[in-house]
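User: My instructor asked us to take a sequence, write out its structure as C-alpha cells, and then describe one feature of it. I'm not sure where to start. Here is the sequence I was given:
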Amino acid sequence: MSMDFQQLAADIKQWGKELGFQKVGITDLDVSAEQAALKRWLELGMHGEMDYLARHAELRADPALLHPGSVRAISVRMNYLPAEAGFARTLKNPRLGYISRYALGRDYHKLLRNRLKQLGQRIQQACAELDYRPFVDSAPIMERPLAVKAGLGWTGKHTLVLDEQGGSWFFLGELLVNLPLPTDQPVQEKCGSCTACITICPTQAIIEPYVLDARRCISYLTIELKGAIPEQFRPLLGNRIYGCDDCQLVCPWNRYAKLTDEGDFAPRKDLHAPELLTLWQWDEAQFLRQTEGSPIRRIGFERWSRNLAVALGNATAAEDIIAALEQRLPSASALVAEHIEWALARQRSGVAQVEKQVLRLVRAVERGLPRDA
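Assistant: Let's start with the prediction itself. The C-alpha cells for your sequence are:
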C-alpha cells in the first residue's frame, strides 16, 4: 500500500502543534539562492570571529550532506517571548542589566531538540521508512533560508525571520527527512518601506537592508567576541550585558507576537531586570550556579564580567559603582581590567548614560508590544 504523503504532511503539522510548535512547514533542501550572498558576506569579514560560519561551506550549500538520503526539511518555530518581559522597565534604568529575552530562561536547544525527536518518532510510527535527524543550531545548516522556503515567514531587513501573525520572537528548528513530502510555498515579504530596525540599531550594525555587519552588533560584541570590546562601541551598549533586542522591539510586526506558554522559557528571577551591582558581586562559582542550564553560561565568567564592567561604566555616575569597580580591579584578568579602567574613567568624569535612542526605544516598546509583554 503506497503512502499518502499529502495526508502525512497534514498530520505532521498537526502533531507539531500538539508538541508545542506554533508553525510547521516543509521545504526541499535547495538553498543555492543564498550562497552568493553568504559568500560575499564572509569575504567582507562581516562574521568577525565566528569562524565556524566560514567552515564547512559544502555542508551549508547542501543540507543533504548532513544526513545522507534526506530530501526534505520539516521546519518548525516555537515562541519564546515571556509574559511581563519588562523591556521598558529594564532599558530605561541604567543600574539594571538587560539580557536578551531569549536567554532569560532555560537553554532552548535541548527543549526544541527533544520535541523534534518526538515529532520524528510520531512520523516513524506512521511511516516506518522514515529516516530523520533533528537540528537546533547544532550544525552548519542554513535554518533561516529553510524556514523562509517552508513558509514560516520572510526575511526581515534585520535578517531575522518575520511572520505577520507571530512577529519574530521565536526559535527555529529542523528535521531532515528522507520522505518526498509535498512542500509549502514561501510567504510574501511585508517589510515594505519600513526601516525602523535599521534606524534604531545603537551601533548601526544593519548597514543596509538584509545585511548585518556582525562586528558592530551588540549581540556579537557581548556574546561571540572573545577579546576586548572596541572602545567606540562601549558607550553604545548602554546596560545591555548579554545580547540585544532593539531591532525586534521596534518592528511593527511584533505587535502581533504571541507570548510563550513554555515554562522553561519563563525568566529566572535573578536574571530578570537584575541590579548590575548585584551581578558584579558574583564570583565565578556563583555565576556557574546561577547560569546552569542557561545559554548565558557559554560566554564564561570573564566575558560576563567584561560586559558588566561596560554597563557599569555607562550607568549614571555614582560613588557605589566606583567603589565596586575599584574593589574588583586588583584581582581582575587583563581583559576585564581593561574594561574596568574604562568604566572608572567614565564614572570619575561624571559621564552619565544619556542615550536618546533608549528613550525612543522605550516609547516604541510601550506602543508596539503585545499586551502583558
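For the description part of your assignment, you could build on this observation: Residues 5-84+105-177 form one domain. Try explaining in your own words what that tells you about the chain.
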